Amino acid sequence: MSSSDIFIGETIGTAVLILLGGGVVAAVTLKRSKALNAGWAAIALGWGLAVLTGAYIAVGLSGAHLNPAVTIGLAIQGTTEWSDVPLYFASELLGAMIGATLVWLAYYGHFRDHLTDPQILAEAKTGPEGLVEQDNAPAAGPVLGIFCTGPEIRNAVQNLMTETIATTVLVLSILTLGLTEGLGVSGTGVLIVALVVAGIGFSLGGPTGYAINPARDLGPRIVHALLPLPNKGGSDWGYAWVPVVGPLLGGALAGGIYQLGFA
After folding, report:
1. What pTM value is reported for the model?
2. 3 state SS of 138
């Protein structure tokens, strides 16, 4: 595939992934949304369907990595050229930023109402320990979770382990799809990956919000930092390295497991 195929496929596919994934979190979170308080099941299923949609759009052009951890795993497996890895990374990050911006545009009025609501702001100022600054101003902001992930128990080692384990499961499932005859030809491999993502959300998403994708977390976090959102607070950059390093470690680990056990 050409460089333009990789760029177009990964940018558009990742943008759609983040638009629909971030969109379901916005729908569940934001005041006056019809899906307000729909819960974790809606979020986990919504992210699975977001992967399904983005991957089906991109698979014919770029192979639909949509995730630097997947790109690393495929490069270690030998399916992706190492020379193409930087282009995949850049395209995925750009797509994630575009998708996060589209979420903001789609929910523009809801963001405004949510972030100017006195009750929401009061809750943000007295939120969980570790997410508030010394002056009691919201450090993580009442909508940061729409854009990126954060831990329920803030422990760097535990959080890193969770992201690494979850991403290893995801990437290993992708690498081994080709071992089942007919999956690639039928196109059902994309559906299976989407179901795996939903399953990870249900089973391993509770501790950290399961980034399992460095671009999915970093791109929208940058957008959160840049957008003119009132009362948004900080972007929690102290945690931002975990959902980048953990998934990359998981992708590399999955690639190594594949070479040792399946190649």
Report:
1. 0.92
2. strand
